Amino acid sequence: MKKLKTLYGLLACVSIVFILYVLVENFIIHPGAGAFLSHKTGLKRELNLPVWLNVMHVHVTFACIAMAAGLLNFSNRIFEKSRKFHRINGYVYLVSVLLVVMTSGYMAPYATGGKISSMGFNVLNMIWLLITITALVQIKKKRIIRHRNWMIRSYAFCFTNMLIHLITSLFHQGFGLVYATSYIIGVYGSIVLLLIIPNIIIRIISRSREIVIPLK
């Protein structure tokens, strides 16, 4: 149980810091996304900047809401105090994911790296939506453990942006690849990691919850 509390504490720290960073970066420091847009060269579709920025801000806002809502619903203390809040907050998470996926679908054709990156984002969106709907179906069938596990898989996708930029920085600044190529690697690399890491976490949680009966 102590391991689970430590794991949740670590998740809470990372999530809160990342939410604050994203909000400050996108709404205070670079509201016009100038640095990010500078990497979008050779676009085959004309970018309507005012519309793109509005969609991006909606995307960022609901991505943060999804991350916060998911974090709250993983809290056993909150769950035990109010099942109703857990249920309502779960729907907040679901709606937020839908809006993030929809806005990402709009922005995908303008992704850095061109069509290859765009296809990667569409794959990410479809997987995230499918996993989240599966989590909803599981709780409707009262399969609590399966619901929790699918929610862990779904919540991992809230960190897509973080993973993409970490991988991109590694290959661009660490290995000297051009930014667009590094970004493509980041998109597809994140898909692989987002499918692997949650299952490792699920195994750790399952082992921590096992009851060991001492021998007499």
Relevant terms:
216 residues, mainly alpha, 9 helices, globular
Task: Compose a concise summary of this entry.
The chain is mostly helical and 216 residues long. The protein contains nine helices and no strands.
Question: How is the secondary structure organized here?
Answer:
Layout: H1 2-29, H2 34-37, H3 49-73, H4 76-81, H5 83-107, H6 115-140, H7 144-156, H8 160-174, H9 179-209
Task: Give the amount of beta strand, in percent.
Answer: under 5%
Gross geometry: globular
Helix content: over 70%
Structural class: mainly alpha
Largest sheet, described in full? none
Task: Tell me the radius of gyration.
Answer: 19 Å
Report the uncertain regions: 211-216
Total count of strands? 0
Mean pLDDT: 91
> What is the number of helices?
9
Distance between the termini: 23 Å
**SSE pattern, N- to C-terminal:** HHHHHHHHH
Protein described:
The chain has 216 residues and is mostly helical. Helix content is 80%, strand content 0%. The chain contains 9 helices and no strands. It has helices at residues 2-29, 34-37, 49-73, 76-81, 83-107, 115-140, 144-156, 160-174, 179-209. It is globular. The model is unreliable at 211-216 (pLDDT under 50).
